[in-house]
Amino acid sequence: MITSKQRAYLRGLGQSCPAIMQIGKGGITENLIKTVSDALEARELVKLTVLENSGENPREALDKLCEALGAEGVSAVGRKIVLYRESKDKKTIELPR
Question: For the structural domain made of 4-84, what CATH number should be given?
Answer without folding.
Answer: 3.30.110.60
